[in-house]
Each structure stands twice: as structure tokens, then as C-alpha cells.
Amino acid sequence: MRKFLATLVLVTAAVALTAQANLPKRKAGLWEITMTIDGNKIPMPTAKMCIDAATDAEFYKVGTGMAQSACSKRDIQVNGNVVTVDSICSFNGSRTSTTHATTTFAGDSAYRTEAKIHYEPPLMNKSDTEVAQDGKWVGACAADMQPGDIVMPGGVKLNVKDMHTQQ
Q: End-to-end alpha-carbon separation of the chain, Å?
């Protein structure tokens, strides 16, 4: 669960960074986020995210804040609906991750991010991880969700506004 949360936050931050790169904004409403790690045939459980224009911008702020404080390199290249992010980030001064991520947007209602991450020293005995994240708009937010809410597998709920204020 911890690895899932950490990976989801990192990849979501990469998507959030790309959201300001002259690409279509994500449609307001409920999004389902699925991930696979290292090509697992069985995907990780689905996370749900409720966004509006303001919280989509807030995801950008969280991603930018994470990148500014932790990353020595952040290169973003935009080519139509495809954004490539290359970064080198340090966490707690003890681990470095080098990431190459490509996000392809399908209008404002879907995207796919494919990322290759190298950890030094290894994370959980692995130096290299491949992550694929798919986001798709599924309709209006549930009645018990407000914009910015992320419901993680297992029902853990957090809000991007809280994440930004903790930085």
C-alpha cells in the first residue's frame, strides 16, 4: 500500500506538471486512476479522484512544489498531446530517483502515463521500476466527494488541498 501511494503521488505529480504545459485541461468530475507496476498482469486497485478547474490547478501546485524542493533536474518537452518529463529527484537525502515519463492525452477525458524510474539506492530491493498509469473521466463526482479528494485503494481519502498546505 505504501509503495502504491508513493508511486501514485509521484506519477500524479508528473501528470500535474504536464497539465500546465499548454495541453487540454482535465474535465471536471470523477476520474478513475489505474496503475500497473513492472508490467503486472493484474493491475493495482483503482483510485478515484474528484477534480474541478481549481483543484486541477492545485495538483499542479503540489507537483511543482514537490519538484522544486526535491528535484535537481526537471525537463518538460511538449509535442502536441504528448508530454515527456525527465527528472532527477532526491528524497530525504538518502535516495535518488531518475524518471523518464511520457504522458499522452486523449482530449480532456483520458490520459496514459508510462514511466521508467531508477532508484539509487534500490527501493525495496529494486533499482528499476516501470509504471503505467491510466486516468479516465467517468462522470460527476460522488456525493461524498469534494473537488480535490483522492480515494485510495482500501478507502483512504485525502485531499490535494491538504497535501499542498503540508509542503
A: 22
**Can you give the residue ranges of every domain in the chain?**
2-159
Q: Is 22 helix (H, G, I), strand (E, B) or coil?
A: coil
Q: Is 150 left (phi over 0), alpha (psi -120 to 50) or beta?
A: beta
Among 33, 106, 101, smallest CA distance to 67 is for: 101
- Taking the C-alpha atoms of residue 58 and residue 64, their distance in angstroms, rounded to an integer, is 10
The band of 1, judged by pLDDT with boundaries at 50, 70 and 90, is very low
**Mean pLDDT over each residue of the chain, to the nearest integer:** 80
Digit-coded pLDDT (tens) for 55-112: 887 776 666 666 667 788 888 888 888 888 898 988 777 889 999 999 899 989 999 9
DSSP characters for 123-161? ETTEEEEEEEEEEEEEESPPTT--TTEEE-TTS-EEEHH
Three-state DSSP class for 37? strand
* SS3 letters across 44-104: CCCEEEEECHHHHHHHHHHHHHHHHHHEEEEEEEEECCEEEEEEEEEECCCEEEEEEEEEE
What's the CA angle centered on 88, arms 87 and 92, to 5 degrees? 130
